[in-house]
Amino acid sequence: MNTKTGRPRCFLRPAPFWKRLTVMMLGVLVQGFGLSVLRSIDLGLDPCSCLTQGVANHLPLSFGTCQVLCHLVTFAVVIRFDLSRLGYGTVGNMVFLGYISDFFTWLYRVCLPAGFFDPAPVRYLLLLPGLAGLLFGAAVYMCSGLGSSPYDAVPFIISAHVKKLSFRWVRILWDIVFMLLSLALGVIPGIVTVAVAFFCGPVVAWVQKKLETTLFRQPAA
Fold this sequence. Notes:
With about 220 residues, this protein is mostly helical. It has one domain (about 20-120, about 135-210). Helices cover about 70% and strands about 0% of the residues. The protein has helices at about 15-40, 45-60, 65-80, 90-110, 120-140, 150-160, 165-185, 190-215. Helix 5 (about 120-140) packs parallel to helix 8 (about 190-215). The chain starts with 16 loop residues before the first helix and ends in an 8-residue tail after the last helix.
């Protein structure tokens, strides 16, 4: 609990709050668009979405609903061990990302001809835009400073409690666990899964530097 505001630390509003909130929402929107493209071209997903797709393949529920259900498990871990990892961005990613992806996927079915994503040239042509949307959107939402998704928060919590392993190895093992669970549910990780593992960190670092030195920069007192 923060003694100045009376709010739990996860509900603090770092300045400039409304800019950060707008950036977070735009980031989740772009991430959801990129995820919808990657789901459509079927060349793999990030580890968290792989598991969500596996659950969705076995339940009569939408991808968005299954993502909320999967996040609830990790959400309980974060609530138990480190509330400071949660914030407005947690809700934005956890609740809305999957449904935004569902909306764009529905839009493709309505507006595009049947089988549009089937030819290999189309799938590989759309790979880069879809991956860019996923990575850039994820980086923007995470760098808004309003909290991260439970999936992204848990490796930090594990790393803080398991001193023998660096965060890098904890994150790698965390992603591997989700990929193995996805395989058990019949979802095979693809080239997108590998690309996310290699490029997510550098993209987040670049976006964070740009946002903090431009949009979120506070005027000198």
